[in-house]
Amino acid sequence: MVGPDKTYKDPAKADRMGEDTYNRLVGAAARLGGSVQAMPWKIARPYINRFNRATGDEQKQAILAALNARARKYQEEERKRRDNAGAPDTYACTAEHSSCGN
Q: What is the per-residue pLDDT across 28-55, written as a single tens digit (0 to 9) for each?
């Protein structure tokens, strides 16, 4: 960045703008047939709110890095959730599963 973004001068407005941008991007992805599940706004909001109140470039960069890491973690969690969605319940013993030991 060339210099700090001045979102801290009106953080409430920047918060609203951030949420509006998020909603527009999620909506556009859905209309364009995007296949990635967006991280919910409730997860992103604290990072955006902190970014909008940060006054220095280093602070903002650190917040963006943390948000990026959280987004990657969310993507991984979603991938694992999708991969496991059709798996049989290995904790329940039923007659149709011979691996339960009964």
A: 998 998 777 899 999 999 999 999 999 9
Output the pTM of the full model.
0.73
**Would you state the structure tokens that stand for residue 88, as one six-digit string?**
């049989």
Say what angle helices 41-53 and 57-84 make with each other, to 10 degrees. 170
CA dihedral angle for residue 78, residue 79, residue 82, residue 85, rounded to 10 degrees: -90
Cα–Cα distance measured from residue 2 to residue 14, given in angstroms and rounded to the nearest whole number = 19
77-98 burial code (b ≥16 CB/10 A, e <16): eeeeeeeeeeeeeeeeeeeeee
